[in-house]
Amino acid sequence: MSRVRLALSLATASLWYRRKVLALVCLTLTLSVTLLFGIQxxxxxxxxxxxxxxxxxxxxxxxxxxxxxxxxxxxFHIGDATNNIRWETYQSLAQDQRVDWAIPVSLGDSYRxxxxxxxxxxxxxxxxxGNDNSLNLAQGExxxxxxxxxxxxxxxxxxxxxxxxxxxxSHGGGRTSFxxxxxxxxxxxxxxxxxxxxxxxxxxxxLDAMEAMHVGWESGVAIPGRTLSADxxxxxxxxxxxxxxxxxxxxxxxxxxxLQRELNQFQPxxxxxxLPGVALxxxxxxxxxxxxxxxxxxxxxxxxxxxxxxxxxxxIQAQRQREVAVLRAVGASSGLIASLYSLECTVLALAASxxxxxxxxxxxxxxxxxxxxxxxxxxxxRALSANEWLLLASVPVxxxxxxxxxxxxxxxxxxxxxxxxxxxG
Amino acid sequence: MSTRxxxxxxxxxxxxxxxxxxxxxxxxxxxxxxxIQLQQGEHLFLHGPSGTGKSTLLSMLSGxxxxxxxxxxxxxxxxxxxKASSRDRFRADHLGVIFQQFNLVxxxxxxxxxxxxxxxxxxxxxxxxxxxxxxxxxxxxxxxIPEYLWHRNVTDMSIGQQQRVAAARALIGAPEIILADEPTxxxxxxxxxxxxxxxxxxxxQRHCSVVFVSHDQxxxxxxxxxxxxxxxx
Lengths: 425, 233
Known about the structure:
The structure holds two protein chains of two kinds.
Chain A (H helix, E strand, L loop, with lengths): L1 H16 L1 H33 L7 E5 L3 H8 L10 E2 H9 L3 E7 L4 E2 L2 E6 L1 H6 L1 E2 L3 E2 L2 E4 L7 E4 L1 H7 L6 E2 L18 E7 L9 E5 H7 L16 H5 L7 E2 L1 E6 L5 H9 L6 E4 L1 H44 L1 H10 L3 H42 L10 H29 L11
Parallel strand pairs in A: 5-12, 9-11
Antiparallel strand pairs in A: 1-14, 1-15, 2-13, 3-14, 4-5, 6-7, 8-11, 9-12, 10-11
Chain B lengths: L14 E9 L6 E3 L3 E3 L5 E4 L6 H8 L7 E6 L2 E2 L5 H11 E4 L11 H5 L1 H5 L1 H6 L4 H11 L16 H13 L5 E5 L7 H17 L3 E5 L11 E4 L5
Helix pairs in contact in B: 7-8
């Protein structure tokens, strides 16, 4: 026991004595472990955030197409709908006994590159993301007047709109559009709080407004004289003929597959019903290769700095011959000397890993509000998984393994080392 | 503290070597050494020109090197029959060592350097009275190391002070034998005489045998025995 204590106290004193050089090595190692660990942490977080882009919704129903396509245009606003579904279909779905709630969604227009989503107040009430988080308004209120628009937080931030601003939506998608709905300007009634999902990157209007805007646009462009003005549109009621998709929440999620099968075989029109969680996982599998490559690179970074560590330790070892000769002469065994080398290297790596943990936790805690508000990326501090602890622990273990190199080289030299540092005379 | 006891003829000699020969790996020249017989409590002066293997002889006496042939008996124990780890333990228990220079572990304080043998050897620790720390402090005082240096980094000390700290380390816990390899070669005459005087006085008090290597023949008169190593023709 006293041997272990002696080795520990000698190693501590020795590390402290060489603190200037070793602090730099430790810093390098800390940074690279932070990188490795940060990437591992982030990829778990981002996968988590990605696969919970939409939660609480049991089925997404749209016109017949593939599941990824339907997911992409309804949730991520990428690409276009293959077709619409009839308003009657939505109504029959909403009245189905098994259906708890249904959010109708109509897409097609855009505002300066952001998708216009026309829906109703069910969207604010029922749509969920992440850990069953609901949508909240950061300012203003949900649309009440017909020509009100609610902005996603990303849109509000990027375009710096305030409640009460007048904006003009464009027909069709794309950043620049030549056909604008100039005769029917919208008033910003509110902005949603940041969610870190594609919800942030869209603007929301009522289904009525969408319908009113497109009176006289049946051919794809405005026909003069047939479009409505704000005044003429005010008192008319508009019921859409068709919408793009419906998000459905069920009374009992057990019935999900039953309803999905029914909808996929729906007689009046061809429909597709998808499970958003399944589709999201499939999408992530396609994109997940990239994060593995990133992790691989960071493993190499750690390996590089461990190699740097060993180079420094071997250099220091050359300067330590006299000190080792003294310890040996006093009766320290070669095993004790070798354990000093291993101990010092391992302690360094432990310190670096501990520091990396602190730096990482500090960075996540400090940056997550900023990341969410600035980039819409949701990352939160959480307990580490077993795999992450294992990854972190692998660094000191690797250091212990590579420290066997100087320890072994000492052991070999030791057989030739005699009295005095010059080895004889 | 023990005072010098009467010579006990039945006690094994401190050092007894026979027919020692040593060859450096990769060299054809073999060093051979005269036999040594040194009783406990007696001091041996070892001199000779460079290259005659003075340090090598000390290395073999300390068990850090193994002779090509011949035997080394320390306190009746044949070193050749011990394993490397046992030789290390034997050295920690029974031998004190002083080098020419660079005697101290640079990252330990003077006092920590002195009590190092007590941490490596139980018998040295038990012989250090009343405890290792007190014995270390007493020795540092006897060897005239100013108190303000005891807890300081040893690299702040003069060569003479460092050599005296090394002597204190060799003496602590009263080992039977002290091996000193030209410990005075970096000191001026005054310091050298004072160092030798202190070392031998304190060694006598503890009934230690001192094996002292030096170029300086004028020191030989302080020793019971002397041995000259010579270059073979």
